[in-house]
From TrEMBL:
Record-given protein name: Hydrogenase expression/formation protein HypE
Top-level taxon of the source organism: Bacteria
Residue ranges annotated for the PurM-like N-terminal domain, each copy included: 62-173
Protein family membership: Belongs to the HypE family.
Domain PurM-like C-terminal, residue spans: 185-332
Transmembrane segments: none
Gene that this polypeptide is encoded by: hypE_2
Upper taxonomic lineage: Bacteria, Bacillati, Actinomycetota, Actinomycetes, Mycobacteriales
One Pfam family from the record: AIRS_C
InterPro entries tied to this protein: HypE, PurM-like_C_dom, PurM-like_C_sf, PurM-like_N, PurM-like_N_sf
């Protein structure tokens, strides 16, 4: 039995499908789609697999048996509950792929495989599920990863809203690469791949009817190719981390504690787009605490910084890479921020999430 899936950007043409009646005749998710029977199989075969495209493997067993590549394996898992599901520059589907690929990349790993688990709320439009699945498949294709196994559950409409996704990723770390959060050393230089705050503000711009007067798009992207360019310089990269929830502030504090070093950042060196700064001013937010989904922080030896920055700038996702600070023996495990007036203040980690359900 075949399904014709006429998919164009924002919607799916259910009238053109020739799949079994339970899927075509229910424009929204119903509990039966999570029951493990014919409706579940229909959902996978005629929505998810066509949407995933060439990124999906045909086998649908409960476990995937995969070849083991040379090198050490890296494993990461993450769950995505962003609200709303669709935001300028992306949606929860591509975010789920990019977020897990980036977690692997921050260990220096080349991503290979992803699992995908969907939790669908009863009543969610099938067109929305299709848009999310299509975006996820396209993001996997762009990242060069295979979708090798997965799961779908349906909850009643009082227990969730829209689509939640868990992705688990497997990658391989090349020999000689040792990137860990506890490897920062005094004298190391802190690098940032580009402007911050775009993802968090993009999500906020379509939440609760907030209008910032300008369009801000999420920076969601897979960073593994940028990381590969950095590794190819031969530099002994000590630390990589993507500043997602809690932004630069939370991430850099975590790294200072893990390595036991002090870190000093230079306020004016940190690129904050004007529209992000304006939106944060309106909402009373600190741009350094706003989530990113396509940026990375790197800590490298001082004598390697120029070569690594140059390599980053040659890649489109690192075109605005810059030095934003350094590690020091002073004030161990504390991050300070040197202001434009020459004063220094402590940059604390946020106590909680400024922007809940941002990823």
């Amino acid at each position: 039995m075949s399904g014709g899936t006429a998919m164009s950007g924002n919607d799916l043409d259910f009238e053109g499908w020739t799949c079994p009646l339970p899927l075509r005749d229910t424009p929204t998710v119903v509990l039966g789609h999570g029951g493990g029977g014919a409706m579940s199989a229909d959902l996978v075969e005629h929505l998810f697999l066509p949407a995933f495209g060439s990124a999906a493997r045909a086998e649908l067993g409960d476990a995937a048996v995969l070849p083991r590549p040379g090198g050490r394996l890296a494993l990461s898992t993450d769950t995505f509950v962003v609200k709303p599901m669709f935001f300028p520059g992306g949606n929860i589907g591509d975010l789920a792929v990019n977020g897990t690929v980036n977690d692997l990349a921050m260990a220096g790993a080349h991503p290979l495989y992803l699992s995908t688990a969907f939790v669908l709320a009863e009543g969610t439009p099938m067109t929305d599920v299709g848009r999310v699945a299509t975006a996820l498949g396209k993001a996997a294709e762009r990242a060069g990863v295979q979708l090798v196994t997965g799961d779908t559950k349906v909850v009643d409409h009082d227990s969730g809203d829209g689509v939640y996704i868990n992705t688990t990723g497997v990658g391989v770390v090349p020999d000689g690469v040792d990137i860990r959060p506890d490897r920062a050393r005094p004298g190391d230089v802190v690098l940032l791949s580009g402007p911050i705050g775009l993802h968090g503000i993009a999500v906020m711009s379509v939440r609760d009817g907030i209008d910032f007067g300008t369009r801000v798009e999420s920076d969601t992207a897979s960073l593994h190719e940028l990381v590969a360019e950095m590794i190819a310089t031969g530099a002994d990269i000590h630390v990589l981390r993507d500043p997602t929830r809690g932004g630069v502030s939370a991430t850099i504090n975590e790294l200072a504690r893990a390595s036991g070093v002090g870190i000093e950042l230079i306020d004016r060196a940190i690129p904050v787009p004007g529209e992000v700064r304006d939106a944060c001013g309106l909402l009373g937010l600190d741009p350094l605490q706003v989530a990113n989904e396509g940026k990375l922080l790197a800590i490298v030896p001082a004598d390697a910084a120029d070569a690594v920055v140059a390599a980053m700038r040659r890649h489109r996702l690192g075109a605005q890479a810059c030095v934003i600070g350094h590690c020091t023996v002073e004030h161990p495990q504390v991050v300070t921020l040197r202001t434009g007036l020459g004063a220094t203040r402590v940059l604390d980690a946020p106590i909680g999430e400024q922007l809940p359900r941002i990823c």
